[in-house]
Amino acid sequence: MSSIIRHSSRLGIRTANFVPPRGRNAYATAAPYFNNEPSQPSVMTSIPGPVSRKAIEELDPVFDIRSLNMPCDYEKSVGNYLADMDGNMLLDVLVMHCIELKSVWFFLINTANREFLYWLRYAQIASIPVGYNNPRLAAAMSSKEAVNALVNRPALGNFPPGYWASLLKTGILAVAPKGLNQVFTAMAGSDAIETSYKAAFIYRRRMERGEGADFTPREIESVMKNQAPGSPKLAIMSFRKAFHGRLFGSLSTTRSKPIHKLDIPSFDWPQASFPQLRYPLEDNIEANREEEEKCLAEVESLISSWHCPIAAIVVEPIQSEGGDNHASPTFFRGLREVTQKKGVLLIVDEVQTGVGATGKFWAHEHWDLQTPPDMVTFSKKAQTAGYYFGNPLLRPNLPYRQFNTWMGDPVRAILFRAIIQEISKHDLVKNTAETGDYLYKELEKLASKFPERIQNLRGKDRGTFIAFDTPRRDAFLKKMKTCGVNIGGSGETAVRLRPMLIFQKHHASILLEKLELALKEI
Amino acid sequence: MSSIIRHSSRLGIRTANFVPPRGRNAYATAAPYFNNEPSQPSVMTSIPGPVSRKAIEELDPVFDIRSLNMPCDYEKSVGNYLADMDGNMLLDVLVMHCIELKSVWFFLINTANREFLYWLRYAQIASIPVGYNNPRLAAAMSSKEAVNALVNRPALGNFPPGYWASLLKTGILAVAPKGLNQVFTAMAGSDAIETSYKAAFIYRRRMERGEGADFTPREIESVMKNQAPGSPKLAIMSFRKAFHGRLFGSLSTTRSKPIHKLDIPSFDWPQASFPQLRYPLEDNIEANREEEEKCLAEVESLISSWHCPIAAIVVEPIQSEGGDNHASPTFFRGLREVTQKKGVLLIVDEVQTGVGATGKFWAHEHWDLQTPPDMVTFSKKAQTAGYYFGNPLLRPNLPYRQFNTWMGDPVRAILFRAIIQEISKHDLVKNTAETGDYLYKELEKLASKFPERIQNLRGKDRGTFIAFDTPRRDAFLKKMKTCGVNIGGSGETAVRLRPMLIFQKHHASILLEKLELALKEI
């Protein structure tokens, strides 16, 4: 057992016994997953406090600190609670980022408050799945196997460790989406996405060329000059407000905010409109159906009319960075149909939605597809990255076409296996579904109490992947901060929730209490 | 102390006492860094042997194995010796990859032997710096700090651990190239390169726009459609035969082999000729001077004539994947002058050359530049990745322009710090310089003995970064394999050496012995 596990009882915070929060209406008091968590957030200093300020000053000369929220004490953090350097313990549902704006910030141009930018970075940008200092994870990372994988990092494409197949099967592939039994491992979301695009392009040309056909001398000669036909004009289609990463190929499909893209050369690839649904859904059935049909028609028309062939369409099950935009299962089934009809691959980007957050392990399981997506990308809560696929022809016809030195990281694959075991042991996907239902219903009540302040509540039946709009969003966020809960915005008016999978009803109650307080006061 | 360190004495291999290899001429018998290494490679089965074959069969259905060399036993590997699953112990100077060619393999088109492709993957593609199961590294990775960083992986741009500044200063920045005191951390070579390109584009537009100028509404509107002026036509120039990575931006600058690039859309960016020097250098001074001047003139002319502005030039100190192509310090000083004169940034890609392999910590230290490069990228032997820079204006004018979820990995930064300490403690850069000198001199002798079989010997005064051409390269590689040493090729006719930093003279002697044997027999 690692020193980290043992020392958790020595944490200098008020943890000893779990005390359910007072107030708020009753809820089922399920046993807490972390019984050494504090019972409430506690903020004893301004944030950042004096110790944090000193750490920031030290960091500034060598590292860009303008995106910094706060330096953290990860030894003292536990479960849903993130500790800062000054001993403050924050419920890490939603952490807000606050930057003084020295220049215009574009996606806030139309909002009233231009003084501060509130920015959402919860649970390490939704990448911590099963709590800080989770003992099962600490045990896995202290194991001989993990230390060995760190010290002797293999080039997985050439020299995998002997246990690689077994690790894949008991880890990454044990939770593979239905119909997708193969994986290409990567290191983070952006390279998972970009390698899936490469797979799509290679596949497209393979189909066009015909099985077994060799590259032509003209292709071989032109590709070294970055010219067609060797480097063909082909495109990936994405949706307005999508976010798929920040490297050159992925950034060309990211459409959430200008600031991510300005000054960076990009590929001339198309974007289709993503449905803009009206809420509540039950009151806008016909309008939403029409909206989704319009978007699907646009997709189909763009495939036919774009100046070059579309090799794949990439889509998030819920547009996250773009403001928590949802579409119905019908829309996604329609998208699958269009792509199949047109011979275009469908890549479902589950980097943010995957690994349980929506109340299913993969968000696209909510759609009930007849045939699986061609590729599904993952990262964040998986703590490793890559893409799943099922069609063996998506393996390039020759080796070394899709290759790099490390091709992922076995220690992170070991960590994902431990995460999967922890999720399974505690039935955490179910917990997320149930906590989400509770939270959504309570938010519905709040919305009917404050109809001008909670609008477009969304995320029903999508676990804790819940968001709403608030027209005076920035004033609201400010107020929440003074209430001791950090909460964050996305898009232009959205407030979104992204707790970990171990976020339980008693945590939700704390959040709801603070929310109501803030809503009353603004 | 970790179990790995303790169990190294229980390794089931003939290690107990170091026995200097017999034969070959005398050399200074420095104390071995690993006294539990075997004294000789040992191959008891065919490679892959029966256990390995079984592991490969198990892996095939779920993972692309066509680039696979062999599954390894990293528990039994030690120092310079890599163990396979069948108990074979290979001196991991140079491991050869052998694939049956079922299709034409383009860069071998002009060679005699098309039956097999021998491919170089030594020391995990030159990424293992200080030996398998290095005890100092195992201790660092078993530490409380490392386990904590693994379990609670921070989003470094938002929530760095409190020790991040200190870790940077005692690790990554402690070995920063002269004049470059800042770092942007990444996860692997490709994203290190791509983020450095993004920095170059953002910087370029900042200079063009003028300090403090805002983005125009037209830029903001056009960028969301991937169009100029928001997404401008700007280029990165690279050199023929360069290798800089495999994602969309980096691949657009990679020019080593068609197979890396075919079917992948790319940016219309220019390539300049890299000097093709004649050997031996001392007999071709004038011709080489002319060749380098011609290349510099081409660079200058391309900057002026390309259809869009060049934001940066990226160059490897020694072109590695392209066949170990060298240029003189005079050439690189000239390149620095041209870039400064033309207002183009210079990015030195030290992903393969960095961290000691050339007998200096950074290969560009050999050039004696008057002003440092604008950015230097690193990965591989650093076991983490990123780019160094010095000019504070290379930090974008606003946060979140250069950002991603993880922005590197603290546990790998901890590992790099341990690597730096190990290098320093044993003076391993000096060892590499000295072993390299010895190896180079002995190879010179072999070259004069077999002038038709060792040609264009290169890498003098560049540590163990040594290569030569052999016209019957593939037959030679085959022969070496039967001699029990795996050695690899690069480019079309090159054989190149890439040992770890702990490769000592007694290891070099084993290699030289086998080389001579093979040269005699082909």
From TrEMBL, chains A, B:
GO cellular component, one term: mitochondrion
Family matches, as InterPro entries: 4NH2But_aminotransferase_euk, Aminotrans_3, Aminotrans_3_PPA_site, PyrdxlP-dep_Trfase, PyrdxlP-dep_Trfase_major, PyrdxlP-dep_Trfase_small
Family: Belongs to the class-III pyridoxal-phosphate-dependent aminotransferase family.
GO molecular function, one term: 4-aminobutyrate:2-oxoglutarate transaminase activity
Catalyzed chemical reaction(s): 4-aminobutanoate + 2-oxoglutarate = succinate semialdehyde + L-glutamate
Source organism per UniProt: Tuber aestivum
Pfam families (alphabetical): Aminotran_3
Coiled coil, from the record: none
UniProt xrefs under PANTHER family: 4-AMINOBUTYRATE AMINOTRANSFERASE, MITOCHONDRIAL (PTHR43206:SF1), AMINOTRANSFERASE (PTHR43206)
Gene Ontology biological process terms, A to Z: gamma-aminobutyric acid catabolic process
Transmembrane region(s): none
Top-rank EC class of the record's enzyme: transferase
Cofactor(s) required, per the database record: pyridoxal 5'-phosphate
Protein name: 4-aminobutyrate aminotransferase
Entry's EC annotation: 2.6.1.19
UniProt keyword annotations, A-Z: Aminotransferase, Pyridoxal phosphate, Transferase
Gene3D superfamilies recorded: Aspartate Aminotransferase, domain 1, Type I PLP-dependent aspartate aminotransferase-like (Major domain)
Superkingdom of the organism of origin: Eukaryota
